[in-house]
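Mods, move this if it's the wrong board.
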Amino acid sequence: MSATSANKWGILQIINMGTLISTLDVGIVNVSLPVMADQFSVSLGQIQWVSTIYLLTMVVLLPFMGKLSDRTERRKVYSCGFFIFGLGSLCIALSHGFTAMLLSRCLQGLGATMIMANSQAMVRQVFPDHERGRALGINAIVISAGTLAGPALGGLLLKFVSWPWLFWINVPIAVAACILGLRWFPSSKSEGAKTPFDYVSTCLLGAGACLLMMAAEGVKSSGMSSPVVIAEGIVGMACLAALWLQGRKIDYGIIDRELFRYRKVRLGNANSFLINLAQTATLIPLTFYLQSELGYSAWTTGALLMIQPLLMGIVSPFAGWFRDKYGGSSPIIAGAFLCAGSMLFVVCLPTIGIISIGLQLAVFGIGIGLFHATNNAEIMSAAPSSKSSLAGSLLALVRYLGQIGGIGLATLFVGSMGAAGALSDADTYEQPLRILFGICFICCLAVALSDRALPKSSQQSESKSA
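Not the wrong board. Structure tokens:
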């Protein structure tokens, strides 16, 4: 472990490399979808599945991979994830048909799932608790940068190269990370109980997430009153309800009940869902509003949107350091209050313009920088060591479910913004935008008010079990 201790910051860079490429690929292909649609002669609705199927693969397999990693050697699962991700990227770059593209994207999503299920657990394994907040703060920067910078980086690359290069660049990075991971990552004994895998819940989660995604996509083209959209939404929610009932019946469900006995895990994941929902639900409409309604160029919009991840990157390491030294309650509460307060710049100011939007992005960036690094460290420290991969995969799953919920909420209120033939008067969307930001204000405020300091006895018991 002495070599591991000496290399821990180097190991963190490999972990960040995996986090970056797996989150970057969620958005980097979006800008190339029209080009792909033209090459494969498919509609826009069909080509969107290139993005959707990647996200769905991760949502469905994250709990399964987390449990598998706790039962086997985490180092091998994590390193193999890099290899499979690189192989999937290679297959996508060489694809000559739409079906092959989707299958390759699933393979790439499988590799990304193996990486994301173990990233936070590897940080916990390598770093002691008094350094974990700082390490996860740096990792939180990479998560945000990868998620938010994907479209901008993809657009920049497409100015100089064709779309397959968006995937070719992943191959050498993945191979290097796989080799370094096998050499540097510490070995660990399996501590997870040898319980059966919950295949029924995995199928229910997949069906529910897929149907709800289809319903969200259908709203854009058919509207909320479409019988097909309504049916997809109802059946999707029924699948998730069945998933919850299935989890209550058995002790080895993919949503592990033992993890939710820890208040920090239970409350932290609920708060993470709401904050991620608020971030996605506000960021996507602002992108369209700046360009299609206020008439700003893509470059101006991109520069303004970079305020949020930039300030998050500055604040996150400080938040992690503060948590390691003084505890996590204050940064979480302060971050959630700032996220809530940022919404008021859009809700309350007389006009929604570049100043109010810039202020919202800046204050939210500071708030989310305080919140994410601290909240992630608190969850991972509270979870038992035998289920650290499962706790990390649950954290990633909640983040993606929050993003899906945010997309659905934004679609519900301003889904027609920027569409062909839609009204271009900014006043048309001001009121729906204010209502949307008002709902997100309530979500963030609920997080700030819910996070009360744990009683001493509860804190001690969670620390011992972790």
